[in-house]
Design brief:
Blueprint: H1 6-30, E1 37-45, E2 50-58, E3 69-75, H2 88-94, H3 96-105, E4 115-120, H4 122-130, H5 132-147, E5 152-158, H6 161-175, E6 187-191, E7 195-200, E8 212-217, E9 220-230, H7 234-249, E10 256-259, E11 267-271, H8 272-276, E12 290-295, H9 299-307, E13 334-338, H10 339-346, H11 354-365, H12 369-375, H13 381-401, E14 412-414, E15 417-418, E16 421-422, H14 425-433, H15 449-485
The protein binds guanosine-5'-triphosphate and calcium ion.
Guanosine-5'-triphosphate (GTP) binds at residues 46-49, 80, 121-123, 192-195, 233-235, 338-339, 342, 346, 383.
Length: 486
């Protein structure tokens, strides 16, 4: 090579090395550090049982939407914490197995910074109404138990019905990644054992302040309608409904309750206090101690009997759901989770039209109890016997209560999970308390990581090609000049 080209070659080599170093550094510098995770624990102390949820998220992306995921769940053995009113220590002790599991699942070096929250819902709201002292003792007991773990204890409290509804809404919209998009949001329908919640962004004005809740999330304002009906979870609704039937029938037939919501051939002895042992049915008092609960398996009569637990005759607003509670017209798509899902999924009723759902359910309810047991020998008979009631209650609540119709029935999606995370209030509760959903949209990189690397690569290649072209041009023009001289 001629000596006079040496500076050009050195120059090109230096530029090439410079570009390579630039690309390598920017790739390494911006590489997402996925191996660093943070964790959070939320205990859902429901009326029927307690579940422990462990969430995880990449440490450096905590404010981005959709980053927090459910890593693990553990169902606490036995009933909900409100059932420990006579033995409060038992409530704290019941959490041990699942909390030890949490210790195993979360890396030890993260334990001290991992927040633990316990939120109790309708079972504890009812216990507080009945016996405030006992509800305090139960909360103290679970608090003492949670403080004994190496995590960062953040409190154990009874959450309000509004919080339960609103955080369920945040969870489903966070997981569906609706919050940063201009698309609509998903309403949330939660059916527990002791209460039920409806939450959505309405098109009409919210006429009662109790039912209105505002959030600013990722730079958007959300004006939500929410209501929680205490005593209208499926277990309490069964008591309400049986209480009404008992009240009218036991006067004439003190030993038999003929119930259209249970299968023909179903016959179980019960006691009156079994039905009336809750503040939801307190006003109904009866002397008879024992009665025989006899199934009739008649869906339309069952629906008639369930309608009696919804008072639709009073409303001081422009429109109401039931019991005088304001509710705007349901609007948009809804995610229906917890018992809405368990029940409808068990009966295979999650994707039919409203008319077909009713037909199938009517056939199911009239199926003899013996046949039902024969078809499902492994399922606990208490649960099995209640599906006809529960599904009829769900249809009646959605249609007569919330005013869904055959036209918008398809807008209800019965869901358990979104991705790997359960739909429920716990994730929204943790996101809110850890400030993981910022009010304003965080600054986003100009382009996604993959796009950025590709751009840097092709841009560097382009510079190289251009330099090569300049070099070739330079070489040709100096040769032509030399020829001209010769
Ligand atoms: N069939 C069936 N029922 C379930 C299952 N899990 C819970 N249930 C029942 O469904 C009802 C509602 O359950 P959850 O949503 O866990 O209710 P909860 O959170 O304990 O009650 P709330 O405090 O009112 O929210 C209760 O009657 C439970 O016994 C399940 O996997 N299958
Ligand atoms: Ca619940």
């Amino acid at each position: 090579m001629e000596r006079r080209y040496m500076p050009v070659v050195i120059f090109l080599a230096a530029i090439t090395v410079g570009i390579i170093i630039m690309v390598v550094i920017s790739v390494v510098q911006n590489k997402p550090l996925y191996q660093k995770y943070k964790y959070g624990i939320v205990l859902d102390a429901g009326s029927s049982h307690t579940s422990v949820f462990i969430y995880e998220w990449p440490a450096e992306k905590e404010n981005n939407t959709g980053m927090v995921q459910q890593k693990h769940t553990c169902n606490v053995k036995g009933k909900g914490i409100s059932s420990y009113s006579a033995n409060p220590q038992g409530a704290g002790a019941s959490l041990q197995e699942c909390m030890n599991e949490a210790k195993q699942k979360i890396p030890a070096h993260r334990h001290p910074e991992t927040p633990v929250y316990l939120g109790a819902t309708a079972g504890m709201r009812l216990l507080r109404m009945e016996n405030e002292e006992a509800s305090k003792k139960v909360l103290d007991s679970v608090a003492l138990s949670l403080k004994s773990y190496p995590f960062s204890y953040q409190g154990a409290r009874i959450i309000s019905g509004q919080e339960e509804g609103a955080f369920g809404w945040i969870t489903v919209n966070y997981l569906s990644e609706n919050l940063r998009k201009p698309t609509g949001t998903l309403g949330a329908l939660d059916l527990g054992g002791a209460s039920t919640q409806i939450t959505f962004v309405p098109q009409q004005k919210i006429e009662s302040s109790d039912n209105s809740i505002d959030f600013r999330l990722y730079g958007n304002n959300y004006h939500l309608y929410t209501h929680s009906f205490l005593c209208y979870g499926k277990d309490q609704a069964l008591k309400l409904s049986m209480g009404k039937k008992l009240e009218s029938t036991l006067k004439t037939d003190p030993i038999e309750l003929r119930d259209p919501c249970f299968h023909p051939g179903y016959k179980v002895p019960r006691t009156v206090p079994d039905v009336f042992n809750t503040p939801c049915t307190k006003e109904l008092k009866l002397a008879n101690e024992n009665f025989l609960h006899v199934g009739l398996g008649n869906w339309s009569q069952c629906q008639q009997s369930i309608r009696k637990v919804f008072n639709t005759s009073i409303c001081s607003y422009s429109k109401c759901s039931f019991n005088g509670v304001f509710q705007p017209s349901v609007y948009g798509d809804f995610g229906a989770f917890s018992a809405f899902f368990f029940v409808m999924d068990f009966l295979n009723l999650t994707s039919d039209s409203l008319a077909t759902t009713k037909e199938k359910l009517a056939a199911y309810c009239s199926t003899p109890w013996e046949k039902i047991v024969g078809n499902h020998p492994k399922i606990d008979q208490k649960y099995l016997s209640e599906y006809c009631f529960s599904a009829t209650y769900i249809l009646t609540l959605l249609e007569d209560g919330y005013k869904f119709t055959s036209n918008n029935w398809k807008d209800i999606r019965f869901i358990k999970k979104i991705g790997d995370s359960d739909a429920g209030w716990t994730l929204g509760y943790m996101l809110n308390l850890t400030n993981m959903i910022p009010a304003e949209a965080p600054d986003m990189p100009l382009m996604p990581y993959g796009g950025y690397v590709t751009f840097m690569f092709f841009f560097a290649l382009l510079i190289l090609v251009l330099l090569l072209l300049v070099y070739l041009y330079f070489r040709r023009s100096t040769r032509t000049a030399q020829k001209d001289i010769i």
